[in-house]
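pasting for ref
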Amino acid sequence: MVDKETPQDASNDKASANEPSDKISGYGSGGVETVISVEAVTREVAKMSEGVPDAATLKKLAGDETFVSIENLKAGYGQMEILHDFNLSVAKGKSLCLIGPNGAGKSTVLHSIFGFTNIFSGKISINGEDVTHQKPNDKLKNAGIAYILQDNSVFPDMSVEENLWMGGFLKDKTDEAKEAAEKVFQKYDRLAKRRSQPARVLSGGERRLLEISRALVMNPEVLLVDEPSIGLEPRFIDMVFEILDDLQNAEGKTIIMVEQNAKKGLEFADIGYVLVSGELAKAGAGDELLADPDVGRLFLGG
């Protein structure tokens, strides 16, 4: 079962957050002597981006018929373009992890898919349907795309059950949201035991589980997951990735994630993309990028 967290809860999370550490918390693991600046990483990644795979190569890398597709996307915020002719291909029931230095445009890819950016040109498709300019509510309700934010987004004074109901706010009937919440409780006993308690009492790992579960209430086909491991200690990180693995391999969800713990993200994902300055620098199977010496040096701590 994926539901493994022990109820030492938030106090443990806070304690570990305050403990001193000589490990890298951003791009990988290793001693502080391996830390290099974001600017240096960006320069190094740019050097290895010769021969960037084109759209046809990305589709071939995706393997099966493409389910989520981005074609020559230019997008950003206001009048500022962040993504420049960006391409992406993911097959149904597969996972893709975006890694890269801060400011590379990783979260902007997720924002663009869900409808949080200005699209200047290009196309975003889900199962062959053009969803480029749909609003976020339409993408959630009609296109089956759910966004799981990197920030703590639970409603602390609402009960766990009420938080789940909020995930079904677009459903036509309230009873439908309640029925979907019951399915979540059947799947995750830890949440079921705390259904009547306010969400503020949950540990960091439980809050992340609640955030993921709330997105499942609309039964999406595509999960956009922004920094699933952020703020969690290792044992809870493992739990969260086990949950995501179950959603992909047991329920057929297509997962696109941003993860600065590059090693964990690439170990999980079928495909990895390395971004720099809003452009694709490198792409490959997750295990291939893990073995790539340049990726290892820049993002995995050695």
